[in-house]
Amino acid sequence: MQSRIFDKMNQTLIKTWSCNKLSDRAKGQLKYQLWQDNDDQSFGIALSENESSGGFSTELIKVEQIILTLQKLYHSAKPFHAVALKELFVGKSVNNASFLGAALVDQGVIRPHPQTARLLEVNDEYELWPLSFDDAVQQSSSPSESSHDIKPVSGKRGPKPKNQQSTQIDDSDALANVGDENAVHQEPI
């Protein structure tokens, strides 16, 4: 089990993907993200959104840890349930492993077993998976990329745009000038 990485501090969001869930009966899609450490340039994957019901952990799972887990599964040469990915999470949601499994299927690292429903198997070239991130990193650093897709994460918040600040002042002035419905209003005699 990996140590917890709080709030993705010192990480840069590289890309967000959408994918289907593992079950054909499941509704909605999942979103997951690729993050890169600003110091050692290592990568991590985090689940970020479920379009339907079902909780999950948004903690960052280091790609190196995923590869080590897949290596064990690959060398066992047996199909596995997504629950085999459970050890990667600190969070205890029952959906964590299957949602990560769906993301890894989407990435082409694992695939559904061809003969047994609900089982997965590791693709032969799973160790090459991190090399595929080079394109995503280059796209995220290109000036043509939209700014909402690239979000450097830090512990500080930036200043609010002036139009929002002035709106807040206007709103508070408006509230101060609104009378209380329950107040007694008297006219001078």
Automatic annotation (TrEMBL):
Region annotation (Disordered) ranges: 137-189
Domain of life: Bacteria
This protein's name: Uncharacterized protein
Highest classification ranks of the organism: Bacteria, Pseudomonadati, Pseudomonadota, Gammaproteobacteria, Moraxellales
